Amino acid sequence: MTEDAAAARSSPVLDTTVSHSARIWNYWLGGRDNYAVDREAGDRVAAMLPSIVAQARADRAFLGRAIRYLAGAEGIRQFLDVGTGLPTANNTHEVAQQVAAESRIVYVDNDPLVLVHARALLTSTAEGACDYVEGDLRNPDKILAEAARTLDFTKPAALMLLGILHHIPDTDEAFAIVRRLAATLAPGSYVAINHSTSAVHGEDMEEAVRHWNKVGTPSMTLRTPEQIADFFAGLELLPPGVVSCSRWRPDPSDGPGEPDEVDEFCGVARKP
Ligand SMILES: C[S@@+](CC[C@H](N)C(=O)[O-])C[C@H]1O[C@@H](n2cnc3c(N)ncnc32)[C@H](O)[C@@H]1O
């Protein structure tokens, strides 16, 4: 890793010479908000692990199914989406407001390029609201204080931590962050998490992540499905529990049979 890459790891600045998680993700999802360095890193990782593109797409599909479920069956009208990523199709507010136009969404990310594109995340319905907080997951108190401009934490809300906790290297710190955020949520709120693992592709996934950690920012730490389940301690996990996100309540329209597993495991839990 170069000194620049090391610096970018601790303090994100818009550096187009270092590949970055949000932009590679955008590339794998078929978006255009990425630079040559991101496409090169994305292609290298995909050459080592061809399933990574399906994994990114399965992650986004999970986001859609989870939000439709929470806004529909559970009547959730407030969403705190931390680690938003670059705008793409079916962003959180679009899915939630299709179900209930009055839904209120706060997006949080620490990548300056996401901030540059945040306007596309702020296209709320008139009945609802969208806000964007430039914030770091490692400072949950700042996120909660700024999100409270738009969200009423005395009422149920859904905390979405999708594809972000694996960017917190220290497992105890990651657990503490989730506990701190969940503690502020009202009873009847939900926490949705998905997180990279190597449970499906083993060494191929681990090798791809080792490569990522040499060329990309922020660094990634894989965790086991058991560790991912531990993020939900004190909460009531909804069926089917922690599973590969392709298998979390798959859409019957996706076809018969169980979808292939991807190395991104997820769960949704309710705060009692
Ligand atoms: C892999 S993308 C996931 C995007 C989206 N949530 C999804 O599931 O499609 C990870 C996002 O988390 C953001 N991120 C990583 N570490 C972060 C941190 N410490 N604080 C805030 N955002 C962070 C990155 O900038 C990136 O946009």
Provide a quick synopsis of the model.
With 272 residues, this protein is of the alpha/beta class. It has helices spanning 3-10, 21-28, 36-48, 52-72, 92-99, 112-116, 140-147, 171-184, 203-215, 225-230, and strands at 19-20, 78-82, 104-109, 129-134, 158-162, 190-196, 216-217, 236-237, 243-244, 264-270.
Identify the notable features of this structure and list them briefly.
single chain; eight-stranded mixed sheet; about 270 residues; binds S-adenosylmethionine
Walkthrough of the structure:
This protein has 272 residues and is α/β, with parallel strands linked by helices. It contains 10 helices and 10 strands. Strands 2, 3, 4, 5, 6, 8, 9 and 10 form an 8-stranded mixed beta sheet that branches. A two-stranded parallel ribbon has the order 1-7. Helix 2 crosses helix 3 (36-48), helix 3 (36-48) packs antiparallel against helix 9 and helix 4 runs parallel beside helix 5 (92-99). The protein is globular. The structure holds S-adenosylmethionine.
Task: Produce the secondary structure layout.
Blueprint: H1 3-10, E1 19-20, H2 21-28, H3 36-48, H4 52-72, E2 78-82, H5 92-99, E3 104-109, H6 112-116, E4 129-134, H7 140-147, E5 158-162, H8 171-184, E6 190-196, H9 203-215, E7 216-217, H10 225-230, E8 236-237, E9 243-244, E10 264-270
Helix pairs in contact: 2-3, 3-9, 4-5
Bound molecules: S-adenosylmethionine.
S-adenosylmethionine (SAM) binds at residues 21-22, 25, 59-60, 63, 83-85, 109-111, 114, 136-138, 162-164, 167, 218.
